[in-house]
Design goal:
Blueprint: E1 8-9, E2 14-15, H1 21-24, H2 28-49, H3 51-59, H4 80-89, E3 106-109, E4 119-122, H5 124-141, E5 148-151, H6 163-170, E6 173-176, H7 182-190, E7 196-199, H8 201-214, E8 225-228, H9 237-247, E9 250-257, E10 261-267, E11 274-276, E12 282-287, E13 294-295, E14 302-309, E15 320-330, E16 341-347, E17 352-354, E18 357-359, H10 361-368, E19 375-383, E20 394-400, H11 408-422, E21 426-432, H12 433-436, E22 446-448
Length: 449
C-alpha cells in the first residue's frame, strides 16, 4: 500500500511528520497484519515485566507459550476492578507497571466516581502514542490546521487534558476554558475567538438551550462546528439536531477510554458514526455483552468493545472490558477511511433490565428529546440500590423549563412515548432547570438512591 504523507504548515515552521495513512486507511485485515509484530513484542514484555499479567497468563495456561493475535480470545479479560487491585498491590503505579518508575513522565488520575481514584502512568513513548491517536481522531472530525478550537476539557488531572497536546499537534489554534465556565465560553464564542467548540454533549446542549432564550439569532455567533466527547449524547438525533438547529453548526463525536487512550474514535463530517482511529496502537474486539463470546466486527453487530494495548509501555492492558455497548454502523465511508464506524448505545454499568429486556438510559434520552421546547433534553433514571433488574414503573426525572414544571399533560405524553417506543411503563417526574443540577460538564444518566 502506498504511503501518503500530509504536511502541516503554519506561518512560523513546517511540520514534517507522517500521519501514518498506511495504517489509518488500511482495511481490517491489513490492520491485523500491521498489528501482529507489535503484539508479539508486547506479549513478551508483559510476561517479563508485568507481574500482574505474568500471573494472569500463567493461570490461563499461557505462561510459557506465545498466544498469537488470532488466538487472543484464549486469554482472560481484564476488568477495572483488577487494575485497581494491581495498584493496591504495589503502590503507587501497581504490579502492572512494565517500566522503571523513573521512565514515568506523566501521571493522570481517574475521577473515582465508583471508589478511590486510579492513576494512569505514561512514558514519553506513551504520550506520543496518545497524541498520535488523538490527532487522527480530531483530524477525522474536521479539526485541521485552519481551525480555531475553544476547548472546555480541563488540563488535569483527567486524561481529557491530553487533548491540549493533540490540538497543538494538529496545528489548530487552541482557546482553553475551564470546564463549567459558561460565561467565558459565551464571551469567547461571541467575540469570534473560535469556530469550533470542544465540550461534553451535556454542555453543548445546555449552551444551545441558554442561547435560544437570550439571543434573537444564536446561529449568528461565528461558530460552525461542535465536537462532543466524554459521554454519550452527540450521536442521539434529538440532541444533535437541536444543537445544530439552534447554533447553526455541524456536530460530530469523539470517544476514548482512560485506561486505554483518551481518544480512540472520531466521527467525520459525514456523521455516520465514529471511526476507529487507534489502528496499529490498540487492538479492538467485539464480544456478546451477555455470553462474552467473540463477535465479528460487521455492519449491524451490537456488542461490547474490548481493548488490547499494542504499544503502551508503562501500564498496558490486555482484553480490557471497556463497558461500552456499541452498534457497528459500517466498515467504509465517503471520507475514504476504512476502519469500522460505530455508535455507543450505552454503558454496561448504566444498563438495567425490565422484564428480561436490556435498557440503556440513552434510549430514554432519545425519546425525551422529542418533547422540546417544553423539556431541555436532559433526563436521568432513578434506581433504588444496586439491583440490575427493575420492576416497572421505572422512575425517570426529566428536566423542563420553569413554566412546564407542573405540566400533567406533558408527564402523560412522555410516559406514553416511553411505553410505546421502549415497551415498559415509567413514572416521570418533571424537574425545573434550577433544581436538576450541574449543567457545565457531564450529566449522570443513572442516579442511585
Amino acid at each position: 500500500m502506498a504511503i501518503t504523507t500530509n504536511r502541516l504548515r503554519d506561518d512560523t515552521c513546517e511540520r514534517d511528520w507522517i500521519w501514518e495513512r498506511e495504517v489509518e486507511a488500511a482495511s481490517w485485515e491489513e490492520t491485523r497484519r500491521l498489528s501482529v509484530g507489535a503484539w508479539e513484542r508486547q506479549f513478551r514484555r508483559l510476561r517479563e515485566s508485568s507481574s500482574f499479567y505474568a500471573r494472569k497468563f500463567r493461570e490461563a495456561g499461557a505462561g510459557s507459550s506465545f498466544v498469537s493475535l488470532a488466538d487472543l480470545s484464549n486469554l482472560p479479560f481484564t476488568t477495572k476492578e483488577e487494575l485497581r487491585q494491581a495498584l493496591d498491590e504495589e503502590p503507587p503505579f501497581g504490579s502492572n507497571l512494565c517500566v522503571s518508575p523513573i521512565q514515568v513522565k506523566r501521571v493522570y488520575q481517574t475521577s473515582g466516581t465508583t471508589g478511590a481514584p486510579s492513576v494512569l502512568a505514561l512514558t514519553r513513548g506513551d504520550m506520543e502514542s496518545w497524541t498520535l491517536m488523538g490527532t487522527r481522531t480530531y483530524y477525522a472530525t474536521g479539526i485541521h490546521e485552519h481551525s480555531t478550537v475553544l476547548t472546555t476539557f480541563g488540563a488535569g488531572p483527567f486524561v481529557a487534558g491530553h487533548t491540549h497536546f493533540v490540538l497543538l499537534r494538529t496545528g489548530a489554534r487552541s482557546v482553553p476554558v475551564a470546564p463549567g465556565d459558561t460565561e467565558r465560553v459565551i464571551f469567547g464564542l461571541r467575540a469570534g475567538l473560535a469556530d469550533t467548540l470542544l465540550s461534553t454533549a451535556s454542555f453543548a446542549q445546555y449552551l444551545a438551550n441558554r442561547l435560544e432564550k437570550t439571543d434573537a439569532d444564536p446561529s449568528a455567533i461565528p461558530l460552525t462546528h461542535v465536537v462532543t466527547g466524554g459521554e454519550p449524547g452527540g450521536g442521539i438525533p434529538g440532541i444533535r439536531d437541536h444543537i445544530q438547529r439552534v447554533l447553526g453548526v455541524t456536530v460530530t463525536e469523539v470517544m476514548g477510554i482512560g485506561d486505554v487512550a483518551p481518544s480512540l474514535f472520531g466521527e467525520c463530517p459525514h456523521q455516520q458514526g465514529m471511526h476507529f482511529c487507534g489502528a496499529g496502537q490498540v487492538w479492538v474486539e467485539l464480544i456478546d455483552p451477555d455470553s462474552r463470546e467473540p463477535m465479528e466486527i460487521e455492519t449491524g453487530a451490537v456488542g461490547e468493545l474490548v481493548y488490547t494495548a499494542l504499544t503502551r509501555e508503562a501500564m498496558p492492558v490486555v482484553r480490557f472490558l471497556g463497558g461500552d455497548i456499541v452498534r457497528i454502523d459500517g466498515t467504509s465511508c465517503e471520507c475514504e477511511r476504512t476502519s469500522f464506524r460505530m455508535r455507543v448505545l450505552g454503558r454496561r454499568d448504566d444498563m438495567f433490565i425490565v422484564r428480561g429486556v436490556n435498557v440503556y438510559p440513552t434510549a430514554i434520552l432519545s425519546v425525551v428529546a422529542e418533547f422540546r421546547p417544553r423539556v431541555t433534553g436532559r433526563a436521568r433514571v432513578i434506581r433504588e440500590g444496586s439491583q440490575t433488574s427493575i420492576e416497572p414503573p421505572i422512575p425517570v426525572e426529566v428536566e423542563v423549563t420553569e413554566r412546564h414544571g407542573s405540566d400533567a399533560s406533558l408527564v402523560a405524553q412522555i410516559e406514553d412515548a416511553i411505553h410505546s417506543r421502549l415497551t415498559f411503563r415509567s413514572k416521570v417526574t418533571l424537574v425545573p432547570e434550577s433544581d436538576f443540577g450541574e449543567s457545565g460538564y457531564k450529566t449522570r444518566l443513572t442516579v442511585r438512591k
